[in-house]
Every structure is written in structure tokens, then in C-alpha cells.
Amino acid sequence: MIGPFLGLLDALENAFIGAYLNAIQEFATLASKARLKQARHEWVDPTYSPEELDYLAKVSAAIMGIECEHRVLGRVISNSNPANNRNYETNDGITAVYNGSSSAVVALTPFLTASTGQASRWQLRWRIKARFPSRCPVRLRLIRPVALGSG
């Protein structure tokens, strides 16, 4: 019975790793653009300073590290060898945090359901297979990231 749980854990951790990788990139890009605008004496959105955006990128990186540890721990429990099978983490096809069909929100939506039990596990596998057919049931395929929007 632990097999389906470990498969679910792997899928979730991979999705969260991809989400945090994108968050790091988005925060770093926003910080860089804000610094460039400040240097040019252009208007800068006062909501977050470049330093605060840098801090948010660092926090995202720290949380992503924990997600990576969770992923490896699940692989240790399932006797997957090697448990730490990656030199670099991937975004698992997630190209944005919130927007678009390849966003973290879209990837994680199938996991947000009120139902539980065996039926929901199979429903989850079917949803993942429909969304990411190349690596069903627990791996999400890697696609080339798209550039962030201008602004």
C-alpha cells in the first residue's frame, strides 16, 4: 500500500521543485529589472524593493532544497537506487508559477480534491496521464522553459 503513496509523493515533490525553480527565476528577474529601472531613474513599482525580491528568491531556494530532500527521502523509502539520482533539479515542465497551461497551479490542481481513498488515487493517475502522457503516472515531462513576460 505504500507504493501509491510514494508515487504520489514523487509527483508532488517534482511539481513543487519545478514551482520553486520558477519562483526563484521570477523573483530574480523582477529584482534585476527593478535595479535597472532605478539606475535609469525610471518609475519602479514600490510594492517590493529589489532587496526584498532578492530575499524572496533566497527563501524560494531554501524551500526548494527541502522539497529536494523530501524527494530523496521518498526514494530511500522505496529502495530506489540511487536515491539521489539527479545532478541538477528540473522544472518538470512547469514554466510559470501562476499563469499558463504549464504553470505550477495547473500541475498541482489535480492534487487538490476533497475526495480520498483508492478511487481518488486512480482518478489522480488518470488526470496526470491525460496531462503528461509521456511519463505517467508519477513523472512530469521536462519541456523547454519559455521566457518571462516583459515588464
Which properties best describe this structure?
151 residues, mainly alpha
Mean pLDDT: 77
Strand content: under 5%
Number of strands: 0
Largest sheet, strands/sense/barrel: none
Which segments are poorly predicted (pLDDT under 50) over 5 or more consecutive residues?
116-122, 132-151
Radius of gyration: 18 Å
Q: What class do helices, strands and sheet pairing give?
A: mainly alpha
User: What distance lies between the first and last C-alpha atoms, to the nearest angstrom?
Assistant: 49 Å
Helix content: 55-70%
Helical element count? 4
What are the secondary-structure elements, in order, as H or E? HHHH
Total tally of structural domains: 1
Global shape? elongated
Brief write-up:
The protein contains four helices and no strands.
Note down, in words, how this protein is organized.
The chain is mostly helical. 56% of the residues lie in helices and 0% in strands. The model is unreliable at 116-122 and 132-151 (pLDDT under 50). It starts with a helix and ends in a 20-residue tail after the last helix. Helix 1 runs antiparallel to helix 2 (50-77). The chain has one domain (2-135).
Spell out the blueprint of helices and strands:
Blueprint: H1 2-39, H2 50-77, H3 104-108, H4 118-131
